[in-house]
Design brief:
five-stranded mixed sheet, alpha/beta, Collagenase (Catalytic Domain), 6 helices, two-stranded antiparallel sheet, single chain, about 200 residues, 7 strands
């Protein structure tokens, strides 16, 4: 995928967002899905809805927490944990395929960050979106752009493992690293969050 984007960039063609198919098996409200995906950077991904067909374009991945999972590349599957119960995970990714659980208790912002997190796993050439706590690049990014956040974060990074405030900063850094290598539009830096 990175090679395709580089070729488009080097040929003079303007690189564009990566087309992603969205599958929503079960009873999730599609307006919630649209609102959620509006919180994912449209400079990197473009979403179109597909028709979910079990065992044709998605299946229940028995070896990964019984999670519904897409079969085709460049696909994100979003499902309700009420329809497809999973325990111990909220998402998963393999290459450019990913799956995200909706438990019904998360905010729209948290759900958008969960989708963004799983989509980042499919971008080649960047650090893992799971590496926020140990990332030296993230600490340098915080020190340069968010000094107060850096001072609080480095004291006890573990307490921020599932905190959306530093996650948004980390995902922005990762997205911009990918954008810099592929000629995509970088994201503006978000305002500094207040960490307590």
């Amino acid at each position: 995928m990175l090679d395709r984007l580089r070729r488009r960039f080097l040929s003079g063609a303007q690189p564009g967002p990566i087309p992603m198919t969205v599958l929503v098996p079960g009873r999730l409200d599609h307006t919630v899905i649209r609102r959620t995906l509006d919180g994912v950077p449209s400079t990197v991904w473009a979403f179109r809805c597909g028709e979910p067909r079990e065992n044709a374009n998605w299946h229940v991945w028995r070896d990964w927490h019984e999670m519904p999972f897409p079969l085709g590349d460049r696909t994100i599957l979003i499902f309700s944990a009420a329809d497809y119960p999973v325990e111990g995970v909220a998402g998963g990714a393999a290459g450019s395929r990913c799956s995200v659980a909706v438990f019904g208790t998360e905010t729209g912002d948290v759900l958008a960050l969960r989708c963004w997190h799983e989509l980042l796993h499919g971008l080649p050439g960047i650090e893992s979106s799971d590496a926020m706590l140990e990332s030296a690049a993230f600490r340098a990014f915080l020190a340069e752009n968010y000094r107060r956040v850096y001072d609080i974060f480095v004291r006890d990074p573990e307490r921020f493992r599932h905190d959306p405030r530093p996650q948004r900063l980390f995902y922005t850094m990762l997205t911009n690293a990918f954008a810099a290598r592929t000629g995509l539009q970088p994201l503006p830096l978000p305002p500094a969050p207040v960490l307590d």
